[in-house]
Design brief:
8-stranded mixed β-sheet, alpha/beta, about 170 residues, Rossmann fold
Length: about 170
């Protein structure tokens, strides 16, 4: 099952995923993959869900020689770290990839995860995709994903709602 968590920038999509992971682990599920989050006002980190280890992923300062977007320069080590965490997470009950964005649309960043997901070898996959990028990603994914939009109003209840879909599927 492919589940997409979408929503505007800053609405709490990563927080929804963190809480969902906590619920899933408490229900006996294994979780793997990555979370991305702000480390400072100018940098992002990528976290390996299974180990809790982190690596700097990107910076608004032009300090990395990896891919670039108008806002960030990306750390090649951070991308490799994330790809390794995703590869480890393929065997988990739930693989989380937070988040697909402009890099992946260009075939960079964590784009290889798209091939893994399309291959259908994952039990459950949670993908975080910003609302404005969702139309570009849908043709790249398996058909009929479940889509949940995180908002300021529902972000506290949304993890439980998503977890219930996964738990019901396992029964």
């Amino acid at each position: 099952m492919v589940i997409i968590v979408t929503g505007a920038i800053g609405v709490g999509k990563t927080s929804v995923c963190r809480k969902l992971i906590e619920i899933a682990l408490n229900q006996g599920f294994t979780c793997g993959g990555i979370l991305t989050d702000k480390a400072t006002s100018s940098s992002l980190i990528v976290e390996d869900i299974s180990s809790g280890k982190t690596e700097t992923f990107a910076s608004t300062d032009n300090v990395y020689d990896g891919p670039r977007t108008p806002k960030y320069s990306f750390n090649p080590r951070g991308i490799d770290f994330g790809l390794q965490a995703i590869a480890k997470g393929v065997s988990a009950d739930i693989l989380v990839v937070d988040e697909f964005g402009h890099l992946e649309l260009r075939g960079e960043g964590f784009a290889r995860a798209l091939d893994i997901i399309k291959a259908g070898k994952i039990k459950n996959c949670i993908l975080v995709i910003r609302t404005e990028l969702l139309p570009a990603f849908l043709p790249l994914l398996p058909p009929n994903p479940l889509i949940f939009e995180a908002t300021l109003e529902n972000r506290d209840q949304l993890p439980e709602e998503i977890a219930n879909k996964i738990i019901k599927r396992k029964q």
